[in-house]
Amino acid sequence: MNHEEIKQQVTEFLTRSLRTKELKDDDNILELGLVHSLFMIQLIMFIEKTFHLELEEEDLDMDNIKTVNDLVVLIERHQQTGAAFQ
Amino acid sequence: MNTPLKATSAPAAEAVRRFVESRVMPLAVQMDQEQEIPRILFTEMAAEGLTGLAVPVKYGGTAVDYATLGAIHEELGRGLASVQNACTVFGMVCKPLSRFGSEAQKDKWLPAIAAGEVIPAIAITEPGVGSDISKLETEAVQEDGQIILNGSKKYITLGQIADLFLVFARLNGRGVAVLVERGTPGLRINPLRGLMGLRANMLAELTFENCSVPVENLVGKIGFGFTHVANYALDEGRYTTACGSVGLAQACLEHSFHYTGERFQFGEPLRKHQLVQKMLSEMITETKAARELCAAAGRLREQGDPAAITETLVAKYHASKTAVHAADHALQLHGASGCMNGNPVERLYRDAKIMEIIEGTSQMHELQIARTFRL
């Protein structure tokens, strides 16, 4: 999956999970007050299922994954380091 | 705790039904009235693979798929809700421990839990805080490589006999999850008896007074306690409670079907009367609908679809209400005999109401469903 495809998947997930119509690449979902209490476990499910990645604990700090771009960087980093699982 | 890492074969729902009918149902009245599940039953459940349902095979568990997990919990709920809910607690500890625990924690605890040697409990609720877990008051302080806990927890299922507690607290305002072993100095356990339903669940109140455990007992990072670990546990608990509620409703239906066929009024069996048929029809329809909602949630969970979280909320909400309605109908159909202590329907009526309260009340589910749909 290339950069644009990853970004599209992430944006689609966030708008669906957070029930928002539009989300720019650098919109801070924490500051927008969109995050609900079940968001984090939905996010873990989404990333691990869609990109076949096994997330580490340090990946899951909300302060580091609060925009579409943050998430794309995280996913691409994992793909480059080969941290995917079958 | 010298447990071999040997995978127990996954228990099929049919095998669990046989186990429930031979080992759980005959003891149901006793467990309800004596307010305890005998320790030996946990050993037997472990031999059936029931204590390791949420434990990965690598750690000696059975790690069944969600469809099987749902079917098993339905069978358990059909037998005795207290036993079903005990298994829910095992899942609520093992699932987040498998996901967020350190390798050392997983190596130490998961095989022992799967083997039935260690009984776990999850400690979230406090005397002053229930649904709003972000406001938990139990305080944790990190000092010299130790986590020191002060505060209290209430209504902790299996608290009377648990060997290991997954405790949620606040450290510098951030949520943490901490493993605390029974017998740790500063931990006091006070049994709570006389619960209306799920009476065999051996509830306890826990008091922590400068209760100190190594910092290595933290499950997940500081700040992950509520948003990650607790939500992971509650999500798992909601699914198995939903399926257990279906089993409870099914038990109500079976008892009612049998009784209304045996008892005659006005010259014919009760179930030949149209108003009785109406009640049975409602029970059949609602139970089937609840089962399908659980199956839908289970399919999404198995696929890892994020929509599974909301579907599980919907399933638990509906299934627990179905259990209450089915139990209400069952009691009405049984009349005075159903109201007698020791009659299964009397117990089902009491147990059903608790299903609507645990792992999030129906009202909290309504709010959550509304929020996730941004109503």
TrEMBL record, chain A:
Gene3D superfamilies: ACP-like (1.10.1200.10)
Domain Carrier: from-to ranges: 1-79
Entry protein name: Carrier domain-containing protein
Alphabetical list of SUPFAM superfamilies matching this protein: ACP-like
Entries under PROSITE patterns matching the protein: CARRIER
Pfam families: PP-binding
TrEMBL record, chain B:
UniProt keyword Translocase, yes or no: no
UniProt GO MF annotations: acyl-CoA dehydrogenase activity; flavin adenine dinucleotide binding
Acyl-CoA dehydrogenase/oxidase C-terminal domain location: 228-372
InterPro entries: Acyl-CoA_Oxase/DH_mid-dom, Acyl-CoA_Oxase/DH_mid-dom_sf, AcylCo_DH-like_C, AcylCo_DH/oxidase_C, AcylCoA_DH/ox_N, AcylCoA_DH/ox_N_sf, AcylCoA_DH/oxidase_NM_dom_sf
Keywords: FAD, Flavoprotein, Oxidoreductase
Needed co-factor(s): FAD
Boundaries of every Acyl-CoA dehydrogenase/oxidase N-terminal domain copy: 13-117
Start and end residues of each Acyl-CoA oxidase/dehydrogenase middle domain: 121-211
Family of the protein in this entry: Belongs to the acyl-CoA dehydrogenase family.
Protein name listed in UniProt: Acyl-CoA dehydrogenase
Organism in which the protein naturally occurs: Paenibacillus albidus
